[in-house]
Amino acid sequence: MSFGPSPRGFPSPAPSAWAPPSQIEQALLEAKLREDWAAYFGTLAQSRLFFEIRKERADATPSATYAVFGYDPRVAGGRIWAVYTESMLPAPEPHRVFDWNHLEWFAKVWQPTDPPVIVINPGSLCEASLPSAPPHSTAWARHGQQAPVQDQSPRLRTLLVGGPLHGAVAHGLAYGALLCVNNDFFWNCMAWHGSGYPRERRQLREWWGITSREEWLSALGCLLAAESSSPVWDFALGLRRTVAREFGGHVDVEHRKQAMADVINANSKGSVVVTADGVTKTEPRPGSEVEARIEGVQRLIGRITRYEARMRADGVLGENQYVSSVETWDLGRASNMARWGLGARFGTLQESESAIIQAGRAAALAYTSWQDFSTGFILGRALHFDEEEFGSWYQDVVAAHRVLMSEPGSPWLNIPFR
Known about the structure:
Blueprint: H1 23-34, H2 37-45, E1 49-53, H3 55-60, E2 70-71, E3 79-85, E4 97-101, H4 103-109, E5 117-120, E6 128-131, H5 136-145, H6 168-174, H7 177-183, H8 197-208, H9 213-224, H10 231-247, H11 253-267, E7 271-275, E8 278-282, H12 287-313, H13 327-343, H14 349-366, H15 370-386, H16 392-406, H17 411-414
Parallel strand pairs: 3-5
Antiparallel strand pairs: 1-3, 1-4, 2-3, 5-6, 7-8
Helix pairs in contact: 1-2, 2-5, 4-5, 6-14, 7-16, 9-13, 11-12, 12-15, 13-14, 13-15, 15-16
């Protein structure tokens, strides 16, 4: 088997010319320099390993995999299967796409007509060449089969090279960090490949109904305008802000419920509005409809109150703090939607970057701090998915909140909110 340094006749790049972009490549480099191949393959076994695929065939048959093989003059015959760790991928291009799999998968699917060598991160200092045919592949594939189950606790992942750490783009990316921590992605990755082209497309289709560039642009626009979540949530939280201002502080739940009922009743009586275009008349709403609306919003106020109580108990909210709004539920997702569309090739890098900056600016105007922003996101996610079960939809994002509010390398501790 041939691991270790680059093959003879093709020298490795000078150490000063390359810096590992993440902890993954740092671990691979250190293991390679020690010639500790067990550690090298152990790192690979815990990583997403990406490879280029044929876009037109992936579009036609998403369930199949069509690898694109490469050429390397250092290898006899020249044919290789180039494989990349997550932060070594090239910037997204419209017609060049990637998928990923686990280490042992490459040995399992290899065919005699495939290249005889798999090259990990070709051209880098952490590069290694793996004979892809059995019986040689059995040795490195075993590391993947025997890899320990990865810790599922949320973790902060940061690109040290190739991802912005400061400035307007990093600021906008930081607003999407909750979902990146929750889903185990680099928070500051702008050149997004995500879960690979087929999965990015499938997730947008299944979760958002997005199958085209036009639908992605429409969804992104709604999120940036904070128009994607329920207007009833905004009504309930906005009414609380209004009542609190009128009474000079917090008002109890029952008083808020009564104030809300008064507003709904007043707005349901019908009215006549005179404008330059003429007279507009609205008819009174039926009593049963008004009662149902009042009952629904009162239930919502109760849900919000109970979630806030749980958030205080979990240390997310302070003792006398309340969630100001849930616009962040849209704006935080907008920061991610911009990248998801790039991963699915519905948008360009420039479009995604512009949307991320816009999301950051909007959030900075709507909130006062990272904590304020985060609590709105947590409540919005819980109202959308959790149904007061306080299950994974709530607990996972609370865990991500704690990581971002405490780890020294967190963007929330290193990038000013405004």
